[in-house]
Amino acid sequence: MRLSICLLAFSALAGLLPQQSADAADAAKRPNILFAISDDQSFPHTSAYGCEWVKTPGFDRVAREGLLFMNCYTPNAKCAPSRSAVVTGRNSWQLEEAGNHVCFFPEKFVTYCEGLTQHTDYFVGCTGKGVAPVTAKGRNLTGKTFSKATQKPPAAAISNNDYATNFEQFLDARKDEEKPFCFWFGATEPHRAYEYGAGVSKGGKSTDQIEKVPGFWPDTDVVRNDMLDYAFEIEHFDRHLQRMIEALERRGELENTLIVVTSDNGMPFPRCKGAEYEYSNHMPLAIMWPAGIKNPGRKIDDYVSFIDFAPTFLELAGVTAEKIGMQPVQGKSLSPIFRSEKSGRVVPERNYVLLGQERHDVGRPGDVGYPIRSIIQDDLLYMRNMKNDRWPMCDPVTGYLNTDGSPTKTQILNMRRQGEETLFWELCFGKRGEEELYNIAKDPECLHNLIDDEKYRAQADQLQKKLFAELKKQEDPRMSGQGEVFDNYPYANPGQRNFYRRFLEGDVNERSAGWVNPSDFEPKPVE
User: Fold this and answer.
1) Which of 220, 293, 444, 455 is the most exposed place for a label (fewest CB within 10 A)?
2) Which of 448, 444, 426 shows the shortest CA–CA distance to 436?
3) H helix or E strand, kind and range, residue 525
4) Domains, the chain
5) Which tens digit of pLDDT belongs to each residue from 335-352?
6) Which 8-state DSSP code applies to residue 344?
7) pLDDT > 90? residue 23
8) CB-based contacts of 182, cutoff 8 Å, min separation 6
9) How confident is the model over 438-462, as a mean pLDDT?
10) What is the DSSP letter of 150?
């Protein structure tokens, strides 16, 4: 009897050992993490998505050998709040000051990069643009910076940062190659400014390659050249991505490296970056991990938010947000999609995404923002403009500061001033109704507002109810009558604080805001 019991106990223990060994082996194979983020690139603009005038073999390889996501969104289409959502796993209305652009980043919000550095054996670093523009004195929000290597840029205004070489120097700096790494590659391309005409003269492109100019801009040679200059800069980012992938391959580390490639917000053109339409928040996303993604080459239709990146990285690193000192994350890990073999919709619950914004750039009285909250579900984008008496892209007399200066912007402004055409100005800079509704499957340019169409009224009401219910669960101050807190947080750059008042008083001028052109400022108020 005792022998039988012993044999049974031994058998049970033996049955456990292989699983325990497997678990230990899995823990030992925590993946490296390479997060590659371009600066101001909209969803359609990679060749993997079928764009003919942008060539992105690096992104395409990641998609081909991994997953191509069709519905990835940033919660907030501006650099700082978008990147803040990435590193915290929280929506911008959950981030206090960090929900704004050019903010003082709160001490309480530990980033996943800081957490992995302080509480794990991951070797963490970055090159290029991290979480910016924010003020976070004494902190490395995306890890130790590697930026010594430089190169001659292929065009004016492109960074001289040799991103790929700096990545290799980061890899060389590891004291123990058996320990995993986490690296943030933040290019400053295709952020403006551009060398006008570089896409044609240096990139070998032709304006005829652009099949269609979005309907919210005029179809002119000026606009087409501007688009090609933007494409040229995307390709610069992609070349460095290719070099990083090749470096990992040479070193034998590609197999167990999770590579995530995306952008922070939409292209730096009118009605894109800084707004809340498809071209603003819909982001490119490709992810590869040869050792961890099943059935590579799939296209994924699940809705994915930037707040999902941090919990994904934490899970794969074998830690929790609480363990490494982070605030609770709102996002959900993408690992179920990695483990599945399905294409299309993989996780049924991933059927909607929330968007929102507060203050981006200054340029309104009192430095107030333009608060918006939105939801996308079943191909419908429902938007609530909460202070629609304000100018969405900031006041005309202060240069529409929430839209970067560009040849496209200048042409649209001049067309209105010269009495040629006002439609493009209305779409890009005009005041908006309280509600907007778009069928983004049929109208990705968001040109046809369906909010007054009785056929859609019931759906709009349902989306509004769901949006507000979710925001209340997430303790959005706008839902409890406390939204002014976002307007009252100070703009972190004192030289541009209270810009509207100081401009009218003559304390600052048209050249004091370096991201727009002096000609963007309207000489008199616009009704």
Assistant:
1) 455
2) 448
3) none
4) 30-347 (3.40.720.10), 354-520 (no CATH)
5) 999 999 999 999 999 999
6) B
7) no
8) 32, 33, 35, 113, 116, 122, 123, 124, 125, 143, 313, 317
9) 98
10) B
